[in-house]
Amino acid sequence: MKMAGFSRLILAAAVVAGSLVPATASACAACMGDPSSKTAGAANGAIFLMLGFIALMLGFIGTFIFHLAKRANAPVPPHVEASAPMTAGDDFK
Questions:
Q1: Smallest Cα–Cα separation from 18: which of 7, 27, 8, 10?
Q2: pLDDT at position 68
Q3: pLDDT in tens, 27-86
Q4: Distance CA 46, CA 41 (A)
Q5: Which of 3, 31, 38, 93 has the most CB atoms around its CB within 10 Å?
Q6: Which helix (H) or strand (E) holds 79?
Q7: In this structure, are residues 64 and 57 in contact, taking their beta carbons and an 8 Å threshold?
Q8: 7-46 as b/e, with b when 16 or more CB fall inside 10 Å?
Q9: Are 74 and 66 in contact (CB under 8 A)?
Q10: DSSP letter string, 33-76
Q11: CA–CA separation, 36 vs 29, rounded Å?
């Protein structure tokens, strides 16, 4: 239990020390460079490609959820419905 308190103290000290260190934020050359350069166009293309992959994966997940919901609400097939129900005593025959 004492180790958890010590870990919290170390974490709090690291957060305070990190917030007190002055630093300047520097943008990359693609962000601060010429907007009509090839690098900026490539960066924009990469961003849109990654957004497209995210949209594609979310679409797949949504389609799968829709498939599962549709399958869960489907009627029971006739061959399953006509079979005899199992009782607790059937397991030991």
A1: 10
A2: 94
A3: 666 566 777 878 888 888 999 999 999 999 999 999 999 999 998 888 877 666 556 666
A4: 9
A5: 31
A6: helix 78-81
A7: no
A8: eeeeeeeeeeeeeeeeeeeeeeebeeeeeeeeebeebeee
A9: no
A10: S-TTSHHHHHHHHHHHHHHHHHHHHHHHHHHHHHHHHHHHTSPP
A11: 13
pLDDT of residue 67: 94
Query: Which H or E run contains 28?
Result: none
In one-letter notation, the amino acid at residue 39 is: T
Q: Which residue has the tokens 């974490």?
A: 11
Tokens of 84: 């005899």
CB 40 within 8 Å of CB 34: yes
